[in-house]
Amino acid sequence: MQFITEPMSIEEKSFEIIAPHLKNLNLSAEEIKIYSRIIHAAGDVDYAPIIKISERAIQAGKSALERGANIFTDVEMVRTGINKRVLKKFGGEIFCKVADAEVKKIAVQNKITRSMAAMRLFGKNLNNSIVAIGNAPTALFEVLRLVREENISPALIIGVPVGFVGAADSKAQLAAQSKIPFVTVEGTKGGSPIAVSVVNALLYLLDNSRD
Amino acid sequence: MQFITEPMSIEEKSFEIIAPHLKNLNLSAEEIKIYSRIIHAAGDVDYAPIIKISERAIQAGKSALERGANIFTDVEMVRTGINKRVLKKFGGEIFCKVADAEVKKIAVQNKITRSMAAMRLFGKNLNNSIVAIGNAPTALFEVLRLVREENISPALIIGVPVGFVGAADSKAQLAAQSKIPFVTVEGTKGGSPIAVSVVNALLYLLDNSRD
Question: Which residue on chain B is closest to A2 by alpha carbon?
């Protein structure tokens, strides 16, 4: 049996297969990279029409990463998937508090999810950072509340929570605001690999070396 | 704004929304749990008709986990997502070698992917284990080669690699063999959250306590 076993060839071949699904979307070269990596991560070309990237999002994300902005995420799977070797070159770190004892306590006391409590605890640390929500709609709702009510201002929100309860609403709310640059997908689809793929796509726009 | 913030309610509500999409598939109660968790993880009801669970798979997976079988996976995101608290109750551990220096060396020497080299290095440790492939088709091809050529015999293969190069073929090959019980999905979709959702669904069939 013959099959491609060289990682970069697999990626290139994959992006070639994805390309025809993007050609009517009027995308910039950088947008194509992000779309391709999302679709590659999900194995699902039906993502093409539902991806939403706000006008300043790519530049905002690249600039933030380049100056060593930190990444704040709702779940450990997102932290695991991000290319830490490249991120570290620029000085950024990734933070996830969902498993912290303090977060659990706040969640129980306030009858909110842990993902939500974690975002609340990050608070002002989210200023000028990259927020990557891959799982919990409640985390995204909380970040949007912090933006609206407490003047918190991330450089970029990558908001792709997944599921049938709140995810679509939280992402519609993200796309409806115009204060913070964002990347999102409409509807119920999303998940940690989608959040990871956007962060890594931005990193690879800055530094395409691979280990 | 009102939204559900209690994790178990979110899950129950989600499973209720998924239920109508499963009703014509003639599933057992345990199959419904696995299907629901996959669809919940992807936010995508289009998974319903493409999930394939072999006849003995659920029993084989439960028995293996219950007697403390280990889990071998291709990527760290799968290890991250599995509920280690519940797994540990039964004595199992999760192994992932993709980032090991030895694996990198074998991959370079043999011009194969690291995921493939990692599976080759696991070798006989895969006997009676649970193999969970969430990302790399080459890892699944290698496991199937070990089964075919080296008489390696996992208790269950959860094979849900994702993408446009090899994923569909590797999963078709998994579904075509009848020696090892399996869970898979047809086509290009899949990914670490799908692999995680199957493992966790099996764990929750054995122990539905949550922390």
Answer: B166
Lookup: tokens for B5: 């913030």
* Nearest Cβ partner for A138 among B3, B18, B138: B3
Of A5, A43, A80, the CB nearest to B189: A43
Going across the sheet that includes A71-73, the strands are: A51-53, A182-185, A156-159, A130-133, A71-73, A94-96
Q: Which of helix, strand or coil describes residue A61?
A: helix
Active site residues of B: 40
Which pTM was predicted?
0.96
Q: Please give the single-letter amino acid code of residue B151.
A: N
Q: Do A5 and B188 touch (CB under 8 A)?
A: no
As given in the structure block, the two tokens for residue B66 are 């219950």
Strand, helix or coil for residue A186: coil
pLDDT tens digits in sequence order for chain B, 211 residues long = 456 666 668 888 999 999 999 999 999 999 999 999 999 999 999 999 999 999 999 999 999 999 999 999 999 999 999 999 999 999 999 999 999 999 999 999 999 999 999 999 999 999 999 999 999 999 999 999 999 999 999 999 999 999 999 999 999 999 999 999 999 999 999 999 999 999 999 999 999 876 5
Q: Which contiguous run of DSSP H or E holds residue A138?
A: helix A137-150
Tokens of residue B113, six digits:
């992917």
The alpha-helical segments, DSSP class H, found in chain B are 7-18, 29-42, 57-66, 76-81, 84-90, 101-110, 114-122, 137-150, 167-176, 192-206
Give the number of beta-carbon pairs within 8 Å between A and B.
Answer: 127
**Cβ contact A10–B169 (<8 Å):** no
